Amino acid sequence: MPLLNLDKFTIKDEVIPAEKLASMLEAHQSKDLSAQLRDNGYLLLRSVYNPSDVRAARDEILKRLAEVGEVAEPISDAISTGTSERRLHYPNTKELGAFWKSVSEGSALRRVINGPEITGVMEEIFGEKVTHFSFAWLRAMQAGKASPVHIDHPYMNRGTKNLLTCWCPIGPVGLDEGTLYILENSHTWSDIRAQFEGLDVDRDKTRLGHIEDTPLALAERKSSRFLTTSFNPGDCLIFGMFMVHGSFDNNSPLGRIRLSCDTRFQPINQPMDPRFSGKNPLAHSGLGYGCLTASLPMNETRAPR
Ligand SMILES: O=C(O)CCC(=O)C(=O)O
Ligand SMILES: [Fe+2]
After folding, report:
1. CATH number, position 235
2. Atom of ligand 1 nearest to the CA of 167
3. pLDDT given at position 3
4. Which of 235, 275, 285, 298 lies 20 to 30 angstroms, CA to CA, from 124?
């Protein structure tokens, strides 16, 4: 299925050509989810969460971002001001991390990302009782920003290998609003697996966790395509630790902020990566929520690890 607005897909200002883009396929929710995940490497699920719960989570987060001067009135439009008072209120990494922890632990957000709907889906996939990391990767991406191309494995591999990422947009995400892409069939790429398997970004600080090729160069080298879609409140995307993914530049002409949260699920009786569990997860480098780029004022950037 062709995607519209093809000129809108850029990554770090590089235009992704039409022949390299395709739509993600929706999972068949009445068929075996784990088989579809194994075959395709991802599950695009529509209408998992209650859309009004997602809207409540969105309102909760936007209110907190507005408190630090990052969202223009009316707040519900989610347009960034381009400025920030976050550092004024929270001057160092510790305080920025504490602020982001409090946003990431909002009850409306947790109702969505850790709620019974997604838990039910994960239990269907794993075929047993599941649990989730207490740590959550909430992201507020202002226009002009993208996430680097990577696999999740090097960032979270101290527990069970039986781990899944759930990428949950917190509100609608249009095709030009910095939506997520995956590289088609990348879950089967043995060279990427060989390069990264066993790498732990907190133990080996000399190596980067993300992929250094530009996403387009990688897609060309592997004869792959960028699979993507737009999202409505309630939808999510599930994938494993070796699926290559990242986000397009947020090219919202209105300057709309892209809100999303990734959550990790695993079987309940298997070991959990200790960095991301408990009440005060230490996360990367012991920084807690301060390790996330999202803990910085929205208009600041940091070199990805
Ligand atoms: O939301 C993004 O920009 C990146 C998300 C991601 O890397 C993930 O879900 O693992
Ligand atoms: Fe990721």
Report:
1. 2.60.120.620
2. 9
3. 54
4. 275
